[in-house]
Amino acid sequence: MRHFTHLKDLTPEEIQSILRQARIWKTVPPDHIFLNKILAMVFFNPSLRTRLSFEAAMLRHGGHAIALEVGSGSWNLEIESGAIMNSNKPEHVREAVPVISRLADIVGVRSFSLGLSHEEDDRDSVIHAFKSLSSVPVISMESAREHPCQGLADMLTIQEHFEELRPKVTLAWAPHIKSLPKAVPHSFLLSASAMGYDITVAHPPGYELATSVIKEAQNLSQRSGSRIRFSHNLDSAIQDTQVIYAKAWGPSSPLAAPLDTLTSWMTHERHLKLADPKSIFMHCLPVRRNVEVHDSILDSRQCKVIDEAENRFHIQRALIHFLLSHS
Amino acid sequence: MRHFTHLKDLTPEEIQSILRQARIWKTVPPDHIFLNKILAMVFFNPSLRTRLSFEAAMLRHGGHAIALEVGSGSWNLEIESGAIMNSNKPEHVREAVPVISRLADIVGVRSFSLGLSHEEDDRDSVIHAFKSLSSVPVISMESAREHPCQGLADMLTIQEHFEELRPKVTLAWAPHIKSLPKAVPHSFLLSASAMGYDITVAHPPGYELATSVIKEAQNLSQRSGSRIRFSHNLDSAIQDTQVIYAKAWGPSSPLAAPLDTLTSWMTHERHLKLADPKSIFMHCLPVRRNVEVHDSILDSRQCKVIDEAENRFHIQRALIHFLLSHS
Amino acid sequence: MRHFTHLKDLTPEEIQSILRQARIWKTVPPDHIFLNKILAMVFFNPSLRTRLSFEAAMLRHGGHAIALEVGSGSWNLEIESGAIMNSNKPEHVREAVPVISRLADIVGVRSFSLGLSHEEDDRDSVIHAFKSLSSVPVISMESAREHPCQGLADMLTIQEHFEELRPKVTLAWAPHIKSLPKAVPHSFLLSASAMGYDITVAHPPGYELATSVIKEAQNLSQRSGSRIRFSHNLDSAIQDTQVIYAKAWGPSSPLAAPLDTLTSWMTHERHLKLADPKSIFMHCLPVRRNVEVHDSILDSRQCKVIDEAENRFHIQRALIHFLLSHS
Fold it and tell me: Do A206 and A116 fall within a single domain?
């Protein structure tokens, strides 16, 4: 049985094969490949785009999806072994996960970072508990450390626009009114490293990504031939790039400049002009217009955020098929 | 591509043809006319009856429905162009709607009046934003100005009981503990005007319907031969009528008598006796018994509110089929 | 038309036949026995396990389930006849239930005890209102008095482990941080009485089950040959038993010892050693580990709580099929 909760759950060959499958099926959709199959989606954090894209993938092909919202008032799950369960968590994953996996063919889990520490995010306790207790494949719908379906959907989007082996991509930190989790930028960095891209990550000082993720990306790059650079200068990081990938995330250090002093990091039409004339603009959505990214980019022809969102559907269809075929 | 968010989206001939289709399929249900089709239902306001009737229409015929609840804590949509999105609305319709319409075959939207003004309701900004941004048909599940599926379900119910060309129908204002939106009475007036009925609208002074809706109804009546009268006297408005359609709505003027002084507008068995002996009683539901309408009417044989609710299913099935056939 | 909201809705022969059907289909699943059928699930109280098991039963066999959450803010149902509906309950069951049953083929209802009194629980007003107003079969997803699907799933679990006619079963009261409803222990007692088992119910003084339920169980036992004993001593009640069924429920008397003085009632590995060496441990879940039941039992081989939860699916599939076949 196979799971997909972190990029390293797949070999580089499997990643390529899943991307290939996703592109083929985007052109020629398959038939009822999920006939009578049930995806149980367990949401520790709410979602609409993710739910819609996963549910549509099942429904389009004869399958079904059931959404279970954890912690919406009544149902919190304990994950600690040996816990004396006299608090507000009435059920342990040791019961909940085996029961869910008896009734479903594949289990999706969304469990965000609690924002405590990189170490805590690295542990990714909730999704690892699901993996160890489930009798059917587990697929991540975003966890504390990574959002691997987003990462692969992003690679699919880049592949659709650039034939060359090593496009130049820039992950550009963006301002936001909140301190957001790092799962999406982590998955972009890891996926692009596995693909062998020429990567620049630009962010203000004190907004570093997790060390363990950077190390994993560097290991991937040694095999793939990828190149990874970090920069504190948005303009130079975007110079001649082919992909601007904007994303907000929270500080890694208490000494980081506060969010409201970093408004100049909002990407703007003028940044597009620094980039390659054929460059594309990406963002995982939802995007706060004129806070993270200016209207002039989002309404431009180079903006591919809708295609990118649609590609979530295509990559997830290929991934679910892969997991069900190996279970 | 066609949408159905306001009655005027259909020609009079199309309205008749959809009513005919709904009646035929009510007797002889069609087969899998929605095979593998997905209806995405976007609820800015919660719903149960509407969700059940739309979802059942899809499921009965091989299709599927996915409910997305906007603004339930986490997901509010910005609709203003050029907004600096630093408030509690993390996503713009310019991204949300194209993404939803990439994954669905038809999009349902429910977005109530904010109760600000008739002008604001007339603008119906949310549902118009969906229409302009969606790549698939949009169907209203009630918006600020109209509830057009309810309006046509009401016409279907009247047609089932009266063979004559011009039944006499009375829209009777009803008391309520809250100031309710006018979408339902607007749609009843517009639909009945398009059908050529003999219409009386009875309400207390200061509870006028929107001027723009009345004008549209008068225009429709010129073509259909409908007759529209307004009255401040419930008894005389009900005299000899064939259809009593009770509905609560809020005041249009600050000088309107307060709701708690208008309890005599509650329809009661004695009103049935003023009407035609074969008259029917209608209400869109939910109804507050013994506040809007007395038990003696709701428990009478002339009460057709359950049939009327069931007809939502039948008319929506015909409408969704119409929209999918024209997309 | 048949309903299943209380155990007495089925004859002893029907109970046996449904258990037989459930066991057969657990081995050899049936085909599309629910093709195009819709189960409407009305939740006055939230649920995940129940929703998942009911929804999976429909989806696995060509059917569908629609979940309607009552009272989650916007939709409370009035059940009193003649009520003047000017409070926070905007809809009466007299409208809601007929409408739901026009659009669905079977209606599931979950409506917990309000914890007022045994008499109030016995009345079970909400679910009886649904039965009297629905035009399609009603199935309980747990009500104030009983949780009959759980009761039959429990019998299925016991049958799978014990070939003998009259296994010795012990319903063991368990501590909890809250005062829980009695529907589950009621249904265990009633079902085991109908099956003819040798039953011991152990609980602290002041935690009696409802008198009307005990009487019904005693009546059932006269026909089935069951034996029912009550005990205030957990150890002696478990001695040589074949089934330990732990369950927390609230006090029946204001003189009952407070919950926090009863921690010695938590079942523990040492209790397993008092029981028959081949005994099994059961619990309806969710279970608070190390409060109701110690880890040493839940992680033991004798613990069958996951099988028991899965059996909810199997028994509900057989029950829904029975009800649809008789409608």
Answer: no
Residue % of chain C over a pLDDT of 90? 88
- Lowest-pLDDT choice from A63-77, A178-192, C223-237, C270-284: A63-77
Instruction: Please tell me the total count of domains within chain B.
Output: 2
Q: Which residues fall within 8 angstroms of residue A298, CB to CB, at 6 or more apart?
A: A281, A283, A287, A289, A305, B94, B95
Nearest Cβ partner for B56 among C38, C94, C95: C38
Q: Give me the residue from C48, C299, C313 closest to A75, CB to CB.
A: C48
> What CATH number should be reported for the domain holding residue B43?
3.40.50.1370
Tell me which of C45, C50, C52 to substitute to probe the interface with A (most A C-beta atoms closer than 10 Å): C52
Residue A289 distance to chain B (closest CA, Å): 6
- Please report all neighbours of B, defined by 3+ CB atom pairs within 8 A: A, C
Q: Within a domain: residue B1?
A: no
C173 CB burial (10 A radius; 0-12, 13-18, 19+): buried
All chains having 3 or more CB pairs closer than 8 angstroms to chain A: B, C
Tell me the average pLDDT of chain A: 95
Residue type, B263: T
A153 and A302 share one domain: yes
- C166–chain A nearest CA distance, Å: 28
Read off the pLDDT of residues C110-168 as tens digits, 9 standing for 90 and up: 998 888 888 889 999 999 999 999 999 999 999 999 999 999 999 999 999 998 889 99
Strand, helix or coil at B245?
A: strand
Q: Is A96 on the interface with C (CB under 8 A)?
A: yes
Per-residue pLDDT of A196-219, as tens digits, reads: 999 999 999 999 999 999 999 999
pLDDT value at A70 more than 90: no
Say yes or no: B238 contacts chain C, CB-CB below 8 A.
no
- Burial of B26 from C-beta contacts in 10 A (0-12 / 13-18 / 19+): middle
C2 within some domain? no
pLDDT by residue (tens digit) across A297-311? 999 999 999 999 999
Cβ <8 Å between C95 and B287: yes
Query: Cβ of A78 and C287 within 8 Å?
Result: no
Residue B240 lies in a domain: yes
For residue C285, list chain A residues with Cβ-Cβ distance below 8 A.
Answer: 91, 95, 99
| Residues β-bridged to residue A280 | A243
Identify the burial level of B35 via C-beta atoms within 10 angstroms of its C-beta, where 0-12 means exposed, 13-18 middle and 19 or more buried.
exposed
**Is the Cβ of B71 closer than 8 Å to some Cβ of chain A?**
no
Q: What local confidence, expressed as pLDDT, does residue A300 receive?
A: 97
Distance from CA of A126 to the nearest CA of C (A): 18
Print the domain residue range for C66.
7-146+312-325
Residues from chain B that touch A73, judged by Cβ atoms under 8 A, are none
CB pairs under 8 A between A and B: 73
Rounded-to-integer distance, Cα A36 and Cα A63, Å: 5
Structure-token match 């074949």, residue found? C242
Assess if residue B2 is contained within a domain: no
A69 and A18 inside one domain: yes
Are C180 and C110 members of one domain? no
* Same domain assignment for residues A296 and A196: yes
Are both B170 and B262 inside the same structural domain?
Answer: yes
- Cβ–Cβ gap B36/A49 under 8 Å: no
- Mean pLDDT score of chain B, rounded to an integer? 95
Please state the ipTM of this predicted complex: 0.95
CA pair distance C294, B58, nearest whole angstrom: 47
pLDDT at position B72: 59
Instruction: Give chains near C: 3+ CB pairs under 8 A.
Output: A, B
Instruction: Name the residue among B72, B95, B102 with its Cβ closest to that of A286.
Output: B95
List strand residue ranges (DSSP E) for chain A, in order.
38-43, 64-69, 77-78, 91-92, 106-111, 138-143, 168-173, 198-202, 227-231, 243-247, 280-282
Same domain, A63 and A132: yes
Residue C254: asked if its preceding bond is cis (omega within 30°), the reply is no
Query: Chain C contact for B60, CB < 8 A?
Result: yes
Looking at the fold, whether C176 and C250 belong to one and the same domain comes out as yes
> Tell me, what's the pLDDT at B114?
83
